[in-house]
Amino acid sequence: MRGIEAGNNLLLGVTGGIAAYKSIELARLFRRKGVEVRVVMTEAATRFVGPMSFQAVTGEAVRVRLFDEAHEAAMGHIELARWADHLLVAPASADFLARMAHGFGDDLLSTLCLATSAPVSVAPAMNVNMWEHPATRANMSLLADRGVRVLGPASGDLACGDTGAGRMLEAAEIVSLLMYPRKTGLFAGEKVIVTAGPTREAVDPVRFISNRSSGKMGFALAEAFAEQGAEVLLVSGPVNLDTPAGVRRLDVQSALEMHRAVFDNIRNADIFAGCAAVADYRPENPSDRKLKKNDDQMALSLVKNPDILAEVAALENGPFTLGFAAETQELAENARGKLAAKGVDMIAANLVGENLGFDTEQNALLVLWSDGEQRLPKQPKKGLARALLEIVAEQYQT
Ligand code: C5P
């Protein structure tokens, strides 16, 4: 997504939440960076901070209501939507995100979200249980699919006394994510696709074949790439994880869906990291009705899924490819074999079992490339992802 630059017009939407006070600082920081800021508040937001505070910082009248004759005469809401080079909703409450996800246009800010063709970002802020509620999860996934960039939330102590994910990012973090999305870091300006999580291969409408992948390594990798300045697309199978800050996410279910999502986007990619545990096989003829248990035995005919990583590696002028290999024995031999067989630039291999690998917090890796290798000792997956990227950066540059 294009970042915000000095001279751009930013429409800052403020919705109801204790974090609304942070948005005054946010507006002030954007102004200091030379960005034109106009603020639209929801009615609920005005209960937390007064429009006058924003007016003082931006030098512009703050708008709240859709049918406000004086303001509409000066600049109609469609004009305002066109004026914006970027629309940022911060804080974005659970209620507002739900209305946005479902295309409501029942107040000024939700109408602007529908009417604008500018990139849209949201900085959610809410109680941890609200953030983790399946309704909010589903809404966030709808928004992410539509290309809405989700910034945060951070974890920590929440205003309600709970601890967990739900804090709005600090104003300075939001400004740096939006204004300097890819100017610094090991992968500044590079476009990266990461696959993560398991895939689900339907047997019938209620059953599937899958595996134990949690998606944690792939999400950590996507986050580390974004921290290093890359523009990251994360193609994820079904997992229970929040989208890392500054990462665009596409959710998929099956290997075939993951294949399509990757190849729809691969043309521009500089780096492809296949971290997903893609199911090797899928049921040949998934039933469109729930299968009944009539016989004492049943056989399921399986067909091979496309090997996404190998296909990407085989592309002419394709991206740098990083694959993963989970092995239960003869780690180095198997991983070297995979490096050659799939034709990838680098393989990160890990021994599964002994509390390493799938669905664990920590992992250790043996990283291999055509003429070298390096071991990364057991550590939390986030640190491991950062260390892995340093090796990737070296090989990518050569
Ligand atoms: O062959 P194996 O499944 O062990 O290879 C693992 C690597 O290949 C991982 O990087 C995984 O993401 C990728 N892969 C893939 N598509 C498949 C199977 C594996 O992209 N169908």
CATH superfamily of the largest domain: CoaB-like
CATH class of the largest domain: Alpha Beta
How large, in whole angstroms, is the Cα Rg? 23 Å
CATH architecture of the largest domain: 3-Layer(aba) Sandwich
What profile does the largest beta sheet have?
8 strands, mixed
How many β strands by DSSP? 19
What share of residues are in beta strands? 25-35%
| Tally of separate domains | 2
Widest sheet: strand order?
A: 12-11-8-13-16-17-18-19
Provide mean pLDDT, rounded: 91
Shape: globular
What small molecules does the structure contain?
A: cytidine-5'-monophosphate
Could you please describe the fold and organization of this structure?
The strands form five sheets. Strands 12-11-8-13-16-17-18-19 form an eight-stranded mixed sheet, sandwiched between helices. The protein has a five-stranded parallel sheet with strand order 2-1-3-4-5, with helices on both faces. Strands 6-7 form a two-stranded antiparallel ribbon. The protein has helices spanning 22-32, 51-58, 69-74, 77-83, 94-101, 108-115, 128-132, 134-145, 171-179, 216-227, 255-265, 308-313, 331-342, 381-397; strands at 9-14, 36-41, 86-92, 120-124, 149-150, 154-157, 163-167, 191-196, 201-204, 207-209, 231-236, 247-251, 271-274, 281-283, 302-304, 320-327, 346-351, 362-369, 372-380. The model has no long low-confidence stretch (mean pLDDT 91). Helix 1 (22-32) runs parallel beside helix 2 (51-58) and helix 5 crosses helix 8. The protein contains 14 helices and 19 strands. It is globular, with a radius of gyration of 23 Å. The protein has two domains: 1-182, Rossmann fold, CATH 3.40.50; 184-398, 3-Layer(aba) Sandwich (Rossmann fold), CATH 3.40.50.10300. By secondary structure, it is an alpha/beta fold.
